[in-house]
Amino acid sequence: MKDLKGRSLVSITDYNREEIIHILDMAEDFEKNQRQQILGGHVIASLFFEPSTRTRLSFESAVQYLGGSIIGFASADTTSVRKGESLKDTILTVSNYSDLIVMRNPTDGSARYASEVSPVPIINAGDGANQHPTQCLLDLYSIRKTQGSLDNIHIAMIGDLKYGRTVHSLVQALSLFGATFHFVSPESLKMPSAVKTWVKKAGLEYHQYTDIMDIMPIADILYMTRIQGERFPDPLEYEKVKNSYILENSMLETSKDSMRVLHPLPRVNEITEDVDDNPKAYYFQQAKNGVYVRQAILAAILGLK
Amino acid sequence: MDKKRKELKVSAIRNGTVIDHIPTEKSFQVINMLNLNESNHQIYFGTGLESKKFGKKGIIKISDKYFADEEISKIALVAPSATLIEIFDYEVRKKESVHLPERVEKIVRCFNPKCVTNIQDVPTNFSVINDHKGQMKLACHYCEKTMAKENIDFF
Ligand SMILES: [Zn+2]
Known about the structure:
By secondary structure, chain A is of the alpha/beta class. Helices cover 35% and strands 14% of the residues of chain A.
């Protein structure tokens, strides 16, 4: 394993299998003992060029549990970016004030570029439609925690598989652990061929469905995503399918006892509230796991553990 | 066809480069891409020529011009079957088929309008990959999107 210290985390593919396991093990330790003042005297910059309250608060919480300080902005509105400053200049400036930069940016590939110009490590907190590796790692943590292992699980991904960035990264990561993939989506939002190529090249299997009930008895994990009306070229098609990908409590009857429902949140209506009380619902715990995982990533990159 | 008549179709050059075995329909694209239409070199070209390998092929001969690696990469992207022949004083000095580089830098635009290379002042950088059907694709180092051959657009 290469040392994670000083290395940016831009894409989930920046980490190999061993490095992923290392981060998850560290996160497990932070779950047992969350308050560890190892980041004292460190300054973390949090640059959110577009708002994402959930991700930002999760990072801020992780920094503060570790005793670090945080500076930055929550949207591009009030910053020099609005005056036309280049991303490079913003990164070079902020790197003078901090030990590490957490960045969220609406432009695809901006995180890789930032990591190339920045003298301090970058953690990508989402770059447009591209990557969101800390989300992916917290998903992996949640899967391992609920299933006991990441190896050879059957994962069903449901909803918008065409534009859903979290499911693409999760396929890339789980391909390192021998998963079987079950893709459930309307015709026009099927998994892109580039992602399916990834699965095939890893020598693994995927199956495609349009009916969510088909995977219910097989799945170890049900990974729900939101379907947005504006993604459909034909509004009529959206009207036809919009209710077919909503998970209700009664639908879970035929699922395994060990099965768990994940969702990157925020949800709108794709999981009805009667699922929340079912012990198979795991999405709120999943969000909580995000803090442990981000603590682990910060500690690993700053070389404090 | 005897050798003499074949040679008549496109004149010989004394010094320069011959690009042979271009798929006939790509001939004009190769000329445009290399900006040969704007160059001061003597250029001869033919399209729709008989070829044992291809059925129909294009050939371009450029006097007093030898291509840099970057230009050869461009040719390989558009016409991977092409052969490059360097001529010195009517003699063949070097003859080799073009081959795709592992990386394509700066010469191709990313087809994703939301890519940082189209928004900030960042030179493009792609790796050349094959998809599961064996089709050549370019994977953007920045936005990680893969683009098919049809979407390749040169700066
Ligand atoms: Zn790109």
